[in-house]
Specification:
With 301 residues, the chain is of the alpha+beta class. The chain contains three helices and 23 strands. The protein starts with a helix and ends with a strand.
Length: 301
């Protein structure tokens, strides 16, 4: 009798445990996501901006007291933001030859986020701008894979940061917005020069020193590049030799200038990254292989 009672007691414990486990599992799947959404996630209110377009690409949007305008130059598009007190220019590093572009404004209390989307055939490239009081800054750039059909973006604020929620059919992707993304904020004079195809803001003297190893002997080679009034001269100075060549400015943008000799046999490129300048190009490799890039010092403007 005691054995039967013990077996019944153990069976009752097992049934109670199974029931409790099943209920908890159901609660994990259904209630917990609702709890997270309610307590840890705040959705921003979204507005799709009405903008003037040309061939599907945004040219100008006006919202609240802001104007967002895309300006084409010979090499790249730039975006201009302005309100009553401030004017900002940003250099887009990406091609606009896709399907189209869209702009969305998201607001949550005093927080404002502007998404500017470049739409391509198989991906959507989203620039994330934060608007705080009268300041505007570009904080991130995120690419989403897309296929045929409608898709949408939403913005959520969670305990660990702000997220973009991308949805297309059954595909759902959450990407955290990073504040580490840096893109050049350009001054008005620079933009004026670029739009007017004025290369003068590249004017200056750029130098670097390179160690050349020839026949087991190490020599210092000084490279001096001068750009002035659409003309460029490249000099090479060593202990026993000096030479120079005249270069032609073939192309330029905000962060890159391409220089060729008169016969197009030599090619040099100066790239600007932040406050640094770098010399590269097909001919730079020949100065001292296997090096392909050299840090330059700009000593005059």
């Amino acid at each position: 009798m005691k054995i039967k009672l013990l077996l019944c007691f153990l069976l009752a414990i097992q049934l109670f445990s199974c029931k409790k486990s099943n209920v908890k599992g159901y609660a994990d799947r259904i209630i917990e996501p609702k709890k997270i959404q309610k307590n840890e996630t705040n959705e921003f209110v979204k507005t799709k901006l009405n903008c003037s377009k040309l061939d599907g690409f945004i040219k100008k949007c006006t919202f609240e007291n802001y104007t967002f305008e895309v300006k084409e130059t010979t090499e790249f598009p730039i975006v201009e933001f302005h309100n009553a007190t401030n004017l900002y220019y940003y250099n887009f590093e990406d091609s606009f030859d896709g399907i189209g572009s869209n702009a969305y404004l998201f607001k949550e209390n005093n927080k404002k986020i502007l998404l500017f989307e470049l739409e391509y055939e198989y991906n959507s490239l989203v620039y994330v701008f934060e608007i705080e009081k009268s300041d505007i800054k570009l904080v991130d750039k995120i690419k989403f894979q897309i296929s045929e059909g409608n898709y949408e973006f939403n913005i959520f604020k969670r305990t660990d940061g702000i997220y973009i929620d991308f949805k297309q059919g059954e595909v759902k992707v959450k990407e955290k917005i990073s504040s580490d993304f840096i893109i050049q904020n350009l001054d008005s004079e620079t933009i004026k020069n670029v739009i007017n195809n004025n290369v003068s803001w590249w004017d200056g003297t750029y130098t670097t020193k390179i160690e050349i190893v020839r026949d087991m002997e190490v020599n210092q080679l000084e490279v001096i590049l001068k750009i002035n009034d659409n003309n460029a001269t490249l000099k090479f100075l060593s202990k026993n030799n000096a030479s120079s060549i005249n270069l032609i400015i073939k192309n330029f943008s905000l962060d890159k200038i391409l220089l060729n000799d008169e016969d197009n046999n030599q090619e040099y490129i100066i790239q600007k990254k932040g406050k640094d300048y770098w010399l590269s190009g097909k001919s730079a490799y020949l100065i001292n292989p296997p090096n392909e890039k050299y840090l330059l010092r700009k000593i005059t403007k």
